[in-house]
Amino acid sequence: MRDTASRTTRKTSSEGLRLGERLRQLRVAAGLTQSELAGDRFSKEYVSQIERGKTRPTAETIGWLADRLGIDAGFLASGVATDERAQLEGALTRAEALYEANEDEEAVDAFEPLVAAARATGVPELQVRALSGAGFAKMGAGDHQGALALLNEARAISEAESLSDVERADVLYRLGCCRYQLSSTQTALSLFNEALALAERSGVDPAKVREALLGGFAGSKILEVHGQRMLDRAFTPGFRVRLHRKDARIVTEAAREAGASTPAFAVVEEQFQRLVDEGGGDLDHAALITLLDEAFTPRAG
Fold first, then answer.
1. d(Cα 96, Cα 90) in Å, to the nearest integer?
2. Hey, what CATH class is 81-163 in?
3. Architecture of domain 4-78
């Protein structure tokens, strides 16, 4: 699982670097040295650190630097001007309203240009919102493979430091719904476990998360039955872990014989095996969440 140190490193080496590159390019275009840009407020060394991605300035500092350069603060921060971002967010809200109204085909059409537009911004929040929304719309329209491709892309981007654990949980949950509809029950269970654990770790009541999701398009039998068992930590078996482990081995063997790659399923099979090894073979398969109880460490403060 992710830890705070590794995610902080990713932040300074990727998002901070992109901001720094924009700052350097804009400063050079304005004909300013680092000392001239810093003025009396900052040191030349601090500007240099920002440009090299070694530190990320506060929103107030970004605004001050943007004023010095005569540009939009939103563009300096993310590469997207404030008004451009507002237009994209408005279009995403309208597309989301279509799939909430179960107008799936219309939602698919509405999201299609927005995914490309969000990718072009390079802003993780916009990309994840567009990709996960488009994925859910495709799932509603019956294109599960297309949905999986979009949702897996959203999952990878959601690792960005600027996104919260709650946003990551939402992507995992949507992936779980799609896997469930494709009858990949083991993978769906694992994804639902991660989603609820992330919500709880972020200080959000996972029961309220489950209740809210059940009331919308994301509702499913797995969330209804096993989601409650996960919350209650009630693992009286409906379907035992050791039997699920056996089924997982059959799937893996069939995939091997067919020459098919199943990397996500391999992780789930490993989790079932670990639970059996730790004496949980006769528990309900919702007990997978206990592995996450051990994996997540409390945040400081």
1. 10
2. mainly alpha
3. Orthogonal Bundle (1.10)
Residues in the chain: 301
Spell out the domain ranges in the chain: 4-78, 81-163, 168-301
- Extract long-range pairs of 171-176: CB within 8 Å, 24+ residues apart: 171/128, 171/132, 172/198, 173/213, 173/218, 173/223, 174/132, 174/135, 174/136, 174/139, 174/218, 175/148, 175/151, 176/220, 176/222, 176/223
Model-level pTM? 0.50
- How do residues 35-46 score in pLDDT, each as one tens digit? 999 999 999 999
Triad 98, 192, 211: Cα angle to 5°: 60
- Topology of domain 168-301 in CATH is N-(1-d-carboxylethyl)-l-norvaline Dehydrogenase; domain 2 (1.10.1040)
163-183: pLDDT as tens digits: 888 788 888 878 877 776 665
Tokens of 77: 């921060």
Please answer whether residues 105 and 141 qualify as being in contact, where contact means their C-beta atoms are separated by less than 8 angstroms: yes
CA–CA distance, 185 with 188 (Å, rounded to integer): 5
**Are the C-beta atoms of residues 57 and 64 closer than 8 Å to each other?**
no
Q: Rounded CA gap, 176 and 220, in Å?
A: 10
